[in-house]
Amino acid sequence: MILDNGVIRTMDPSLATCGALALAGPLVAGGVGTHEWALPSPERVDLRGRCVLPAFTDAHVHFPTWALAQRDVRLDGAASLAEALDRVARHPRHGTWIRGTGWRDAEWAEKPDREALDAVSGDTPAALWAKDYHSLWLNSAALARAGGDLDADGGVVERDAAGAPTGILREESAWRFRERYVTVSEDEWVEATRAGIRVAVSRGVGAIHDKDGWLGAAAIFGRIHEREGLAIRVWQSLPAERVTELAALGLRSRIGDDFLRLGYLKTFMDGTLGSQTALMLDGSGVRISGRDELEETIRAGAAAGWPVSVHAIGDLANREALDAFEATMDVWRPLGLRHRIEHAQCLDPTDIERFARIGVACSVQFTHAPSDRDLAERLWHDRLEGAYAFRSLWEAGALLANGSDAPVEELDPLAGIRHGVLRTLDDRPGWRPQEALTVEQAIRASTVNPAWLAGDERRRGRLLPGFLADLVVLSRDPFGCPPEELATVEVVATMVGGRWVHNPPPWD
Amino acid sequence: MILDNGVIRTMDPSLATCGALALAGPLVAGGVGTHEWALPSPERVDLRGRCVLPAFTDAHVHFPTWALAQRDVRLDGAASLAEALDRVARHPRHGTWIRGTGWRDAEWAEKPDREALDAVSGDTPAALWAKDYHSLWLNSAALARAGGDLDADGGVVERDAAGAPTGILREESAWRFRERYVTVSEDEWVEATRAGIRVAVSRGVGAIHDKDGWLGAAAIFGRIHEREGLAIRVWQSLPAERVTELAALGLRSRIGDDFLRLGYLKTFMDGTLGSQTALMLDGSGVRISGRDELEETIRAGAAAGWPVSVHAIGDLANREALDAFEATMDVWRPLGLRHRIEHAQCLDPTDIERFARIGVACSVQFTHAPSDRDLAERLWHDRLEGAYAFRSLWEAGALLANGSDAPVEELDPLAGIRHGVLRTLDDRPGWRPQEALTVEQAIRASTVNPAWLAGDERRRGRLLPGFLADLVVLSRDPFGCPPEELATVEVVATMVGGRWVHNPPPWD
Q1: ipTM metric
Q2: Any idea where the Amidohydrolase domain is (chains A, B) (predicted)?
């Protein structure tokens, strides 16, 4: 097959742009500047000047959780408790639980609690996640399921003056409640994920780095892979606390195939900005793991053949994570393990250069910058210099990969790229524009760099001969359009492994 | 590439034999009866009348254990205690432990014990496996490592009149001792396995069903796969008692790629003939799992997406295993799980037809029949009708796969095929020749059927267009030679995935 008459951006400096691309089965055969071909009568697709990029990787997504949340009550942007409750009341019921996501009560006059929720949900158990997934709002029917079993190390159970739970759980208490009591059948997960993949490919996604290992995402993807084949490639996380079992089973990172591969161990240093649980140098926040604990995880992971991905948001959390990676360099560097810090949202400016020096990648979410700007201006006003410092990190040589953090933000790589370049979601000018990336940097962080993180730098992320034919056709070349017009760039079609997985040609 | 001028046996009825085979990269492109080809100047290999078969699968092999044992004291055929001790004394030392395998004391006048072994091993700990790997002979230095920690459920610790361990452990006690005290570094495993793979491909092996999941074989194969690529395909077992962890991690059977794939759960019903621990209808033997326990394993495996392989040697063990698979058919049949009984050595004749009816495969070892004949004649003289009843099983419709059980027997598929057809290892006529297989049946059990068990019946095991180009070149066509001349058939070369992994052409 030949994609012809377009602008093919290979993302490789050896042939940055060409007018046509030849494909052979699941692979790229070659790209040339003209359309003279020696092959006998290939299928020819006329791009009519459209742009082709390597398919996007979403480097940080809780994919099944996001896919399931597509069916849930959406509370994003609810300006008050009353508005949130109204949305719950009006949402169609399906399944055993009322599930919802996206509330943020920082600006609400009345705070959420179980009684308010009881009034609109009745006897049906309801579990509503905060936008950052670090707080959970339950009604009385939901609380009853736990029979008082709410406390957890590293967790918070909010209680009223009488000592009764208000219905708000945070951190470990919230996650433990979900794991034990908010049950979803595996069939429901599979069905939602299958539908989610259709949405993802319509947005140009060809690969994801999934974060839902803790809920058994590998089995969800595995069932789809067995049944009809996956349309996207999955680099799967598993919980770091399982490393002993993985070692005993003899399971190392990279077992899998080009569509479903076990990738990395995931652990946490701290909480989040939104829940005010990020671990800060000023002494605030929640420490989920300390430096020593992370060191142990890195060593155990290395012994068993696994790289580590660690969530770190606050400046102290990031410093301790960097310390742990630095202290263990002798162990993991010879093994070529590709570790990563997730979010790296608030950094002490002196820590920025350490990512490149130590060799730990920075798995960030461009959309978080404009999305968090108001909250960050308020809570981190005295430390914005190292917050969402994507351009500084890039220029210091850090490897940046971009993810959506869906369902925290929408799963939409083009939106992520736009937010990395423009740093605004609305009519305001870009926030701290000195940290804006170029279009090329933002796209590289969404294609080339995540492929490297998954050890696939010679297979994916660029459109070179012998690479997998994973590509997205865009309505317009994002390199060639003024940044303020990036929102007009749309996904026309997506191909993964030589197969059109979204909107096959011909196109109008 | 075209393999030309030979006898290609595709093992598929649609084109049983052809004179040439065309390959394209890792795949078979087609087979034809002439050598007229339309392709432009392919590489041409002249077979000079040699025979090509699908590469063999060894459907039952403890591969790393066998590979490591290649470096150990070999006690096979030692006719007396003195001969065994002499071999230990003369063996070159390397590593921390003296390790040995292959003794069988059934015919020895003096029985093995620690004192006899101390005399030739001194302070170096020594651990010598019986031929069936169900008994372990230790010296005093080895026993000292355990500090008295020898007992285990389902295990036997032999003791003298004074109550002191004699140095012989059986069943669970033996395996537990190995796991806890006979340490081998992962590097040593990898090195031995790498060397073992070179030996295996020289014997025409292109794939194995490995049984060493319990020792983390997946990591050993994984390290070789990461470093230089595996030359053989591995269908990996994992211990059935890990099924809860696998479910929590979301790991299902079939995760992996064409070279290393997690396959099936392995568990045990009973012991062995050689150790007299096979569970028999006459009430003798050791029950490791009962019917109910196996039922639970099958149900848990099915829920997590795993087929089960169960070791069963005695007639009662086999009956209970069949009962358990039959009782759970409603659960696993709709999932298409391919369960298997390993060995199926002694069957009550009424149970023979059940394998096909229930749909459980029979993973047997053709070589065990002539190898065990004397012992079986003695211990099972009243129940030989259903012992090693390969032809009866075949004719009753059971799916038979052949394995070596290496290191119990030598890893050599051509020897296995010969023993399935001739049922003798020496000058005696075949043992119970009514149970002999045809050459075609024996080869099918070593190629087509194991590929089906691994879910690869449309990818491997036959030489059809689009199948993986895994093949063995033989010096002579085993179908066309008198059975008594099968020993003259030799492996000339082996190809896996289109790559010569043993003795590339040209050949003399």
Answers
A1: 0.85
A2: 45-502
